[in-house]
Amino acid sequence: MILKEIDEIKKIRKSAQLVSKTLGIMAKEIKPGITSLYLDKIAEEFILDNNAIPGFKGYNNFPNTLCISVNNQVVHGIPCDKPLNEGDIISIDCGVINDGYFGDHAYTFKVGEVTKEINKLLDVTKNSLYEGIDAMIENNRIGDIGSAIQRYINLHGYGIVKELVGHGLGENLHEEPEVPNYGRKGTGKIIKNGLVLAIEPMINLGTEKISLDDDEWTIVTLDGLYSAHFEHNIALINGKPEILSTFDFIYDALGIKSDEEKRFKNFFDL
User: Is residue 137 included in any domain, yes or no?
Assistant: First the structure.
């Protein structure tokens, strides 16, 4: 577990905010008929124009700037030229490197109108992310985060992907500790000031079981039902979780009013 100084956290926040702005641009562009490859091109140009480096492109030979996962794809989807359809959902996971530090977060978007069932999946998954962040307080343990997410998701009967986890974040995209989206309270490493995490529940409408697609990157649900993914970057500062990323740029683009992040803005946004 690598604990960060405030100057390092500021750099991670700068990268995370650039990811947030990139996702905000994506929100304006997503509609039926466009392709994920088109979104990837726009995102890459925006990141490069801001003097940053796409954090995923070339990582373990991943071929693109964005991981774009549609419908039953859980994560690590490769952008392609297949048009999006009304009623689809599209998870966009984006990473950047700026001044030597990573930002990495994700949002699942609706393409046009989706069913009530899918709306609920998205709402519950996003809410579970904040349940996890609430548990990231000084002297709690990593297992408390996963336990909070699991407890909330179990109320709704969805499948929690267990093979894929959140992680520490800093000069490396994936640092210790791993942060599962399930677990037992009071277990795992102690949460201390300076810890920076990417918390990212991946929740399936049906079974928790997944498989690897033929491209050897894309993770899909075993039953073919939809999956949602939301991710924030958070630092522990003065014993409290401080959100470094934001969905505000997405909400501005979509005309959504929300104060869901307000309780996690106690240091940088005062």
Answer: yes
